[in-house]
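subagent[fold] <- orchestrator: predict structure for attached chain, return tokens only, no commentary.
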Amino acid sequence: MRTVWKVNLNEAWTMAGADAPVKLPVGAEIIAAQYQHGDLCVWAIVDPDAETEDRPIHVIGTGNPIPDGVSYVDTVQAGDGLLVWHVFA
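subagent[fold] -> orchestrator:
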């Protein structure tokens, strides 16, 4: 049975900068990115029984290059909207 997981990217950023590797079950489908309580998070549909893998999440500011081979997830605005991030997986 599948379920939805939330992953806090702020914790991953501390380690990796803009490219945040996160542990997700193999085959996870990342469906959204939003700020929640001041933290940037992604939500994914997962099989909780599947083995986990490191999945790179790319958080890119407007005007910056996008890595090849990634898929768009969402665009989010931080706080007052002065910072805009585009999230790719």
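orchestrator: received. Logging for downstream: The beta strands are 3-8, 19-25, 29-36, 39-46, 52-61, 72-78, 83-88. Residues 14 and 69 are 24 Å apart (CA to CA).
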